[in-house]
Specification:
By secondary structure, the protein is an alpha/beta fold. It is built from 29 helices and 21 strands. The radius of gyration is 38 Å and the shape is elongated.
């Protein structure tokens, strides 16, 4: 072990000290003679935030549809143009507002169609996770634009973000700070470490040439001994050859953080010094120190971070991973730093020893110690980010290595949220300075990003599950709704992202991020169950695992999508199924493009095996190319952007936007057809009296037989038919011939059994359109007035098309009802009076279609033995109160002693006679029993006893429009 001699450290001086060498210009600094930019008053900032929050609330409540994002985009363009913004910054403002409004608009609508109930599985099992996954995606999409908001960048393509103006009397000389450079290593070996140390020495020489009065000490922190590796002698020889300090740790603990903390103690790197850390494979450019150290002229700057890029881009995995790095370091990090929310990324950075020591040193309890340290320091220290490429490193050489890296980052970042949620969510303790709102927002976005593995799995499962089983996470949504709410949000999100990422990254970053979801899912699961895991290094050599083993879950997803697509093509589904088909194709495309990387990695593995054999078992060195990827075009120097709008301009914009939100036009909601008020089906002078039966008579118990036994001709009869039945013209004509109006109920079932097509969502989305159109054409051909009930008892869980079971929700009922009405109207069936038949017409507001969609309301009173029988007068009054101005139709039946039935029919007669809004009274033969021939049906029959026959004859004569023989 090499020990560093104790050398004096010069004290930091003010920037104007006579020893400063100014013969060579330093990197660009803020003009010391320039006045500080005028800051917006705090009250104005809070007013803008309140306006944004109020706007979000109004959008969430009103859900205005697609016109608002378009208006927001146009309004933002105009306002930003007037304020002086041009070019990309102008478009960033427009996209930010448009994405925000469309995102809130979509999420608020999407909340109203979450599936809750269902059979055999309740809809919330997939409905709530799917909504949370969509919310995660939307929040991070909107969060992207937080960092893209205009920030007055310098004209130079390589610039500092987060650097502020510092008055001359507070500025310090950053070039007097001693610098300690730490290079932690475990088993990378001389092949990897020599280029890194050579690059650091070259950067040190370039810095000392300009500022010879300072010092830079290079320290290799070797954990090879504690990791039981055999590379320590090799590292010792290399360090002696290059003249750098070599610290071998003999007691483990704390992984990389513990290794660096130990080396700091050994060399005495504390006090007024700067600390720099390079990963073993990161090779700095000659001007690394010259670019980063000047930012420490601000005594409140705690650290300066630069990007991490890969130089071995001839390797396909490293090339795709470098695109992912470019998205983070070139697009996201500048925005975070502009809000003083940058964080240390583990390598290629400088920080003050006093800053890290203010939190007790580099944290050793996290495998992402850099991020943990940033959150703890951010409240009291400023951060700066430098956008230029100052170092290049070795990217993952195969998919297994890349996924291992992603697993470590995901576990560490998710654990940060677990361990530091108080810092991020709760106010700071009294007497301590806490994080700002912007810092909390940026750090929360960072800590929740890696839940995308769970999110993407849900996105994969949902459409496959829906097509194969009919279990949906969405209920009550129509294709029109998706066009109004989802398409604007999705289109603006995609357009906004690629506008921001143009010239910065490529489509490969999207694919490799999606391709990582299996390992991110595994990392999230380990964090949830409390298994943080150990710190793992990204291998610097190709492993032996086949690339296809890393794609197993993707192959399962593709297989599931293909099976679902085949089923979709062989079945006749509605719009919802075709929307699911679009999503399945999208998933196939994403997984298929990830397979391209798998194939390229497998091909690279074969190529490297051939090279290994060619070179006699010695792998050729990896070439690092210190320049941007060819697809990343050189940034053109831009003209300095105008300063941010003055407070009055911003306030005017908020006022205009708020005014727009208050006058939202809700006319984009589904149009409702006018109600049908038939002259022939208007309220009769006397209620029609009839008997309800099934579609065909059973064994002499049909309507004709009952009429003979009662010696009456009914003015109205009711029957229930299934969608697969045909309209009975003879039955309807007979009722019309008696001067009455037939009452038809259509049930979405098949031989008494329900199916996926029975659900309200399936009906609303068109799955039953063929049967409904046939019924509409037949009813239109009948041409005479008809009472029609669809979706009977939709507020009950036993209904075939239920709003509380089989995946239905109350909001589904009006949608399905309106869809059926629309099809009947298109077929010309204008002879229909629509009868709403809930289980409880006195308390059905959550399920009922709009009042202008209902012509009459039906009450169903089935009185069972040994129960308290309902008072007809009370029931009629409750229904009339809930549905004022509507005709009332009654379906009644009773099973009890003859005396009970007679007394109840008498009360029914009196209740109906006392009202003027009752259009029909129909006794439902066999009551709630479906089999008219069974023993259970007999007690309900009108002809079960002579007393009931006589009582009903009196009721028919007194109330009904009947012909007595």
């Amino acid at each position: 072990m090499t020990v560093l001699e104790d050398r004096p450290r010069p004290a930091p001086l003010l920037a104007g000290h006579q020893d400063v060498d100014v013969s060579r210009p330093a990197p660009p600094l803020p003009d010391p003679n320039a006045a500080p930019a005028k800051e917006v008053a705090p009250w104005a900032v809070w007013l803008c935030r309140f306006g944004l929050f109020a706007g979000a609330v109004i959008i969430a409540v009103e859900r205005p549809g697609p016109w608002l994002p378009a208006a927001a985009f146009a309004f933002a363009l105009g306002l930003a143009w007037v304020a002086g913004w041009r070019g990309r910054q102008l478009r960033n403002i427009a996209f930010a507002l448009a994405v925000f409004t469309s995102g809130v608009n979509y999420l608020s609508w999407r909340f109203t169609v979450i599936a809750i109930g269902g059979h055999p599985l309740p809809g919330w099992i997939i409905g709530i996770p799917l909504y949370l996954a969509e919310m995660h995606a939307a929040i991070h999409t909107m969060g992207l634009h937080i960092g893209l908001w205009p920030r007055n960048p310098p004209a130079e393509p390589e610039a500092y973000y987060g650097r502020r103006y510092v008055p001359e009397d507070r500025r310090v000389d950053p070039f007097r700070y001693p610098v300690y450079v730490f290079v932690p290593t475990v088993d990378e070996g001389e092949e990897v470490l020599r280029p890194t140390l050579t690059g650091i020495l070259a950067a040190r020489d370039a810095y000392l040439e300009q500022y010879p009065y300072t010092e830079i000490t290079i320290v290799v922190c070797d954990d090879g001994f504690v990791a039981k590796k055999n590379t320590v002698p090799e590292m010792t020889a290399l360090c002696e050859e290059l003249g750098v300090v070599h610290i071998v740790r003999t007691v483990g603990g704390g992984a990389k953080a513990g290794n660096v903390n130990n080396a700091r103690t050994e060399v005495g790197a504390d006090g007024d010094v700067l600390l720099c850390i390079f990963d073993a494979d990161q090779i700095p450019r000659d001007d690394f120190f010259l670019k980063l150290i000047p930012a420490f002229d601000d005594p409140e700057v705690g650290w300066v971070q630069s990007g991490q890029f890969y130089g071995n881009r001839t390797n396909p995995v490293a090339r795709w991973a470098d695109d992912q790095q470019s998205l983070f370091y070139r697009l996201l990090c500048p925005g975070k730093a502009a809000h003083n929310s940058a964080f240390i990324c583990g390598t290629n950075f400088l920080m003050r020893a006093t800053a890290i020591d203010s939190i007790g040193g580099i944290p050793t309890g996290s495998i992402t110690e850099d991020f943990a340290a940033s959150i703890r320091m951010a409240a009291n220290w400023r951060s700066v980010y430098y956008t230029g490429i100052l170092a290049v490193g070795l990217g993952p050489l195969d998919l297994a290595s890349f996924f291992k890296q992603q697993d470590r980052w995901a576990r560490g970042t998710l654990n940060i949220m677990w361990d530091h949620w108080r810092d991020l969510l709760l106010p700071a303790p009294k007497g301590k300075k806490g994080l700002t709102a912007q810092q909390r927002a940026h750090y929360l976005l960072a800590t929740t990003h890696y839940w995308c593995g769970v999110r993407d799995l849900i996105f994969c499962i949902a459409p496959i599950l829906f097509v194969l089983t009919g279990i949906s996470g969405v209920r009550g949504a129509t294709a029109t709704d998706f066009l109004l709410y989802f398409v604007p949000y999705f289109a603006l999100s995609i357009a906004g992202f690629w506008h921001a990422a143009w010239d910065i990254t490529s489509w490969r970053c999207i694919i490799i991020n999606y391709g990582s979801f299996p390992v991110l899912l595994q990392a999230a699961f380990r964090v949830v169950i409390g298994r943080k895991g150990d710190f793992t290094l990204t291998p610097k050599k190709r492993g032996t695992m086949s690339p296809w083993r890393t794609a197993q879950l993707h192959l399962v997803v593709v297989a599931g999508c293909l099976v679902a697509l085949v089923k979709l093509m062989l079945s006749s589904g509605g719009a919802a199924y075709w929307l699911a088909g679009f999503w399945l194709l999208y998933l196939c495309m994403m997984s298929g493009m990830h397979m391209i990387l798998v194939i390229l990695d497998a091909r690279q593995a074969r190529k490297e095996r051939r090279e290994l054999a060619l070179f006699g078992g010695i792998a050729p060195p990896v070439a690092l190319i210190p320049r941007p990827d060819p697809h990343q075009r050189r940034h053109r120097a831009r003209r300095p952007a105008r300063r941010l709008p003055k407070p009055r301009t911003a306030l005017a914009g908020v006022a205009v936007a708020a005014a727009m939100l208050f006058v939202l036009d809700t006319s984009t909601s589904a149009a409702q057809t006018d109600p049908l008020h038939l002259i022939a089906a208007a309220l009769p002078a006397h209620p029609y009296v009839g008997v309800g039966a099934l579609a065909t008579p059973y064994g002499g118990t049909g309507v004709e037989t009952i009429e003979k036994q009662l010696d009456v001709k009914f003015g109205s009869t009711a029957r229930t038919q299934e969608t697969g039945d045909a309209f009975d013209y003879g039955w309807a004509d007979t009722i019309a011939a008696n001067g009455g109006v037939p009452w038809l109920t259509i049930v979405f079932s098949d031989n008494g059994k329900t199916s996926l097509d029975s659900s309200l969502t399936a009906i609303a989305n068109g799955s039953d359109d063929a049967a409904i159109n046939r019924w509409a054409i037949e009813v239109a051909a009948y041409g005479k007035p008809l009472y029609l009930t669809v979706l009977p008892q939709a507020d009950r869980n036993y209904a075939a098309s239920s709003g509380v079971a089989n995946g239905g929700i109350p909001q589904d009922v009006p949608r399905a009802w309106a869809h059926i009405r629309q099809l009947f109207t298109q077929a010309g069936a204008t002879n229909v009076s629509w009868v709403w038949t809930p289980g409880d017409p006195g308390d059905d507001g959550a399920y009922s279609p709009p009042a202008n969609q209902i012509d009459a309301v039906a009450l169903t009173m089935a009185e069972f033995p040994k129960t308290t029988w309902a008072d007809p007068a009370v029931a009629l009054a409750a229904a009339a109160k809930e549905h004022p101005g509507k005709q009332l139709l009654l379906q009644v039946s009773a099973d009890g002693t003859p005396a009970q039935r007679v007394a109840w029919l008498q009360k029914l007669q009196a209740a109906v006679a006392a009202r003027t809004d009752v259009a029909a009274v129909v006794y439902q033969e066999a009551g709630p029993v479906s089999d008219l021939t069974g023993a259970d049906a007999k007690p309900w029959a009108l002809t079960a006893d002579k007393q009931t026959v006589a009582a009903f004859q009196k009721l028919a004569a007194a109330l009904g429009k009947v012909d007595n023989k």
